[in-house]
What does this fold into?
Amino acid sequence: MKNHARIRSSFEQHYGHPPEWIARAPGRINLLGEHVDYNDGWVLPAAIDRCARLAFSASTTSEIMLYAADLEANVRFDLNALDDKLDCDGNPLPGWALYPAGVAWVLRQNHLPISGLQAVLTSQIPIGSGLSSSAAIEVIFAVAWQALSPWQQTPMELAQICQRAENEYVGVQCGLMDPFSILHGVRDHALFFDTRTLDWEPVPLPAHVSLVVADSGVRRRLGGSAYNQRREACEQALRLLAKRLPGVHALRDVSLDDFREHEQALPPSLRPIAEHVVGECVRVLRAADLLKAEDAKGFGALMLEGHASLRDLYQVSSPELDTLVEIARELPGCLGARLTGAGFGGCTVNLVEAQTAETFIERLSSAYAQRTGGKADVWISRPVDGANLLLHGQRKPV
Ligand code: GLA
It folds into this structure.
């Protein structure tokens, strides 16, 4: 409750009255299935216990008044002037304000009426670290506007609204995984999600393992073109493979055998890109079965394979992430380790025997400092429930 009390009092100081609502949206890790959600693939993420929080009330104007407490920054923008991406003083919206503005823009495009807001935002999710700090902000605003409106969308529809905000307003061509996980998280479970059919199922994590997140401290910018370039490369590879493989509508439809038979049709630059996606889809399907059978060791081995594929084929790792994985895999009790999220910096996720987790954390942190001179933030992360709302202290689902 401490976090809620803090944001409540920050809201009161700012606006002179208590907030009507508080919303919470968690970050996410991905255990396996990286860079496949925009190829119709399968993913295995989980919502985690680092969250964003938003205290808010409806306002009587069309203005959004937002105080980002961690940044000590205020922004005001108008719902009737979203296309220009300008604040009420005519200045370009700061990067972090594009997320709420983008969600508002999509809601209005979808003819879902929304009101002005007074709001205070805080977040424990490190920015640019691969833990979906931006999707958490999008989700929290989608949830907030829904709470104040007569319309009701399903959590999956809200996730799609957030994805569209990111694609069309912010300009990152991301998939559905992040807002999906943030809205559908289930405590102590990973989420096995088919990004084509939108079917999903929570899979319990074995009780004897812990998930340890290691933040390399190196930040990336997703808007940075590297992510969009990878997506474009996947689309090019698909176009070439689909000419030879009828019935292939996304790289997820290409089997490993088909890929081997037809890879020569791809230019050398596209071959490793498609190979990662095809291999990663196979890995996720195997991994989901292993997790259901509580085979944490087998699952961990696939995480290591997944990292190697992201490093060597998809080329989205970084020296720091590789170092974290190299150190981790040699430590006692470590079953698997890989970068999580888009890559290019950020965090690794480690699957560790629960009774060795504390020693693992100490040894990983100190070896990383020794090898790189950098400081990694390393912690045990628990899967939690998805985004929710509090109204006058009562917890409400989205
Ligand atoms: C980012 C995107 C996701 C997904 C991952 C990589 O987190 O937002 O949609 O593509 O990268 O798996």
Observations:
- The mean pLDDT is 96.
- The CA atoms of residues 127 and 133 lie 6 Å apart.
